[in-house]
Design a protein that fits this description.
This protein is an alpha/beta fold. It has a domain at 37-157 and 247-286: D-Maltodextrin-Binding Protein, domain 2 (3-Layer(aba) Sandwich), CATH 3.40.190.170. It is built from 13 helices and eleven strands. The protein has helices at 2-19, 54-66, 87-92, 125-134, 137-145, 185-193, 206-211, 223-229, 256-260, 264-298, 309-327, 331-353, 355-362, and strands at residues 37-43, 71-76, 98-101, 150-157, 164-166, 180-182, 197-199, 217-218, 237-240, 249-255, 303-306. The strands form two sheets. The chain has a six-stranded mixed β-sheet, with helices on one face. Helix 6 crosses helix 11 (309-327), helix 8 crosses helix 10 and helix 12 packs across helix 13 (355-362). The termini are far apart. The structure holds calcium ion.
């Protein structure tokens, strides 16, 4: 009887609680204002760098807003806390909880990480997001990073990049022979096999290298970011399309122990803040690249050029060879490339009659 009374009382209390109306002043929120989680995020980008560097800033802002200040993330630019290429290790070892960068920087540690940023002639931004979030890509990415105590999430996308800045015209594959170019990753290997000399330089060294003739050509991102660096002052020809980086995904990496220590609601906030920051960057590039390209053409009189089809066909052929060699000795890379390629083969079929057909239709005379 006593037990029954207690149970009845508890039920009544629970009901009265759930019916209670919480009155809140306009502009206030549920947090008591005390910040209970102070996390640190290190990045491979200069602090507040337009586009790329806004990925971590937006992520931090969303987490702050969604938690009403209960979780704060302090973002450090490249070199402020750890060197840009030290981001992966700093998060993996738990020196900091979060990192923002591009997975292909870690190809030397995790070969398959190449596929989670960009593959020459590979997936576009929209397709990457489809593969990662609905095609098994993110699960593979998390599997690849698990041995490093890291959880990766997509954290931004540049969209299709530009092929780059050149001091001379490119009319045939022969024009690539002996050309010194800043172009990193697999695309760099493709250019090397085409006879070019390629180098990897951080973004802030490209301008001087072009100006001083250390390189004859360089790729960076696209009009919005390239205009900021002023490459139009040191090279005349601006080539498209970005066959080498058709939709580069950036990453947010989380130390797994730190993540596991969070309550469930904050785990969800991290996940959805990343998803929002991922889309936000693409939206910004989509809006700003057009304006920057117009400025480059109209104000700075650059020569906009398309790489000849014959050159692109050759680069694609060489890319296939490079990819085969790249995955040859790595089981995980083979597994990820298989998933990536299968997704690509399927999405190409549909995008041929949807995205591509529509864009072609819009351009009909
Ligand atoms: Ca690039």
């Amino acid at each position: 009887m006593k037990k029954l009374l207690v149970t009845t009382f508890l039920s009544a209390t629970l009901i009265s609680c759930s019916n209670e109306q919480v009155s809140m002043e306009e502009g206030s929120c549920f947090s008591n204002g005390v910040s209970t989680y102070q996390w640190t995020m290190v990045t491979t980008w200069p602090k507040n760098f337009p586009g790329l560097g806004m990925g971590p800033e937006n992520f931090s802002k969303y987490v702050d807003e969604m938690t009403c200040g209960r979780m704060k993330i302090k973002v450090y630019g490249a070199g402020e806390f750890v060197p840009p290429m030290g981001v992966f290790d700093a998060v993996s070892q738990g020196n900091v909880q979060l990192g923002h960068g591009a997975s292909y920087y870690w190809t030397g540690k995790v070969k398959s990480s190449q596929f989670f940023t960009a593959v020459p002639f590979g997936l576009t931004a929209q397709e990457m997001n489809g593969w990662l979030h609905y095609g098994g890509g993110l699960e593979l990415w998390q599997e690849a990073y698990a041995p490093f105590n890291l959880i990766p999430l997509a954290g931004g996308n540049s969209g299709v990049q530009m092929a780059g800045w050149f001091k001379k015209e490119i009319n045939s594959l022969d024009d690539l022979k002996g050309l010194k170019m800043r172009i990193p990753g697999l695309a760099g290997e493709v250019f090397t096999r085409a006879g070019a000399e390629t180098v990897t330089l951080p973004g802030n060294e490209i301008f001087l290298s072009l100006q001083q003739g250390v390189v004859d050509a360089a790729e960076w991102v696209g009009p919005y970011n390239d205009l900021t660096f002023g490459f139009h002052q040191v090279a005349d020809y601006y080539y498209y399309p970005g066959w080498h980086e058709p939709g580069s995904t950036l990453e947010i990496i989380i130390n797994k122990d730190a993540y596991e220590s969070l309550p469930e609601d904050l785990k969800a906030v991290i996940k959805y803040a990343a998803r929002a920051a991922n889309q936000e960057m693409l939206d910004e590039y989509t809006a700003r690249n057009n304006k920057a390209l117009n400025e480059l053409i109209e104000k700075h009189n650059i020569e906009l050029r398309k790489l000849p089809d014959s050159v692109l066909i050759e680069l694609r052929r060489i890319t296939d060879e490079v990819m085969e060699d790249f995955i040859a000795d790595d089981e995980m890379a083979q597994k990820v490339y298989k998933s990536y390629t299968e997704f690509k083969d399927q999405v190409i079929n549909y995008h041929r009659i949807s995205e591509k057909a529509y864009i072609d239709t819009r351009e009909l005379d």
